């Protein structure tokens, strides 16, 4: 019998606390405005939603501590995948090995919840399915790693608070060079073609994003979960430099059956920034 959600979260948070107690404190870096302080919009009439179009030419640099992915990319952290009827979702099998995210724009430890994918439902392998744009350009696919702030105890509670969640976004673009981790995951998708099916893996599916998960060079801004309007409950971390995926590895995503008709397309409207800060993290 599997663990209940509360039991899982308790184990994950306890494991994160032990790791936090064992490491030295981060250096103090101060600044003015978000992310050092809560963001207060001067125009409450405009909902501050995600996704956005990241304009690399208009970014302000912000000096931050290194962003640390603690445990995301270890071979021991075995995962399972599920066809949710809307996406492919990746979760950990062992809560003791739940990864944490800290540093960068984050004021606290954030606990890994899940990872999921966005892609186009079109039949062509070069269809563009990312939800964010970078310089007006969409990418083949987009991967999101969701985390919740440890002090809130779970994702549902974190949704009620500004900055309660952190979403890390990785872009995928078509290339002729095969990413071995994406290739292995793509082969496993045949096991979950049916909606609401799930299968354990003998590897860590998060390793497909390891090459891009740098401590600096990402873009960060306050926003929402995609498709929701809970203002500013998410700290977004977007890596604009894409990871390569070959067309033979995108096809299995497009073959997945959805709960209703096709899997939804990633082509969502990008939202205006209004007066939100969009920052590039530098050492």
TrEMBL record:
It holds the Pfam family Carb_anhydrase. One of its GO terms (cellular component) is cytoplasm. Residues 32-283 form the Alpha-carbonic anhydrase domain. InterPro entries: CA_dom, CA_dom_sf, Carbonic_anhydrase_a-class. One of its GO terms (molecular function) is carbonate dehydratase activity. SMART domains: Carb_anhydrase. Belongs to the alpha-carbonic anhydrase family. This is Carbonic anhydrase 1-like.
């Amino acid at each position: 019998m599997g663990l209940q959600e509360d039991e899982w979260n308790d184990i994950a948070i306890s494991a994160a606390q032990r790791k936090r107690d064992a490491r030295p404190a981060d250096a103090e870096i101060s600044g003015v405005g978000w992310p050092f302080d809560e963001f207060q919009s001067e125009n409450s009439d405009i909902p501050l939603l995600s996704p956005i179009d990241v304009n690399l030419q208009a970014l302000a640099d912000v000096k931050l501590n290194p962003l640390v992915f603690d445990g995301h990319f270890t071979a021991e952290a075995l995962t399972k995948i599920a066809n949710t009827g809307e996406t492919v979702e990746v979760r950990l099998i062992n809560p003791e090995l739940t990864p944490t995210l800290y540093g960068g724009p984050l004021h606290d430890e954030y606990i890994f919840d899940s990872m999921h994918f966005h892609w186009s439902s079109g039949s062509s392998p070069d269809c563009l399915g990312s939800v964010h744009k970078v310089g007006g350009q969409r990418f083949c696919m987009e991967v999101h790693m969701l985390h919740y702030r440890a002090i809130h105890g779970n994702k549902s509670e974190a949704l009620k608070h500004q900055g309660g969640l952190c979403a890390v976004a990785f872009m995928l673009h078509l290339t002729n060079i095969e990413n071995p981790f994406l290739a292995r995951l793509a082969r496993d998708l045949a096991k979950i073609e049916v909606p609401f099916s799930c299968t354990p893996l003998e590897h860590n599916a998060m390793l497909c994003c390891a090459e891009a998960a740098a401590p600096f060079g990402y873009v960060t801004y306050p926003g929402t979960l995609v498709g929701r309007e809970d203002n500013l409950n998410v700290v977004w971390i977007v890596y604009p430099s894409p990871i390569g995926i070959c067309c033979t590895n995108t096809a299995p995503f497009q073959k997945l059956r959805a709960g209703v008709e096709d899997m939804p397309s990633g082509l969502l409207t990008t939202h205006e920034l209004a007066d939100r800060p969009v920052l590039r993290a530098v050492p």
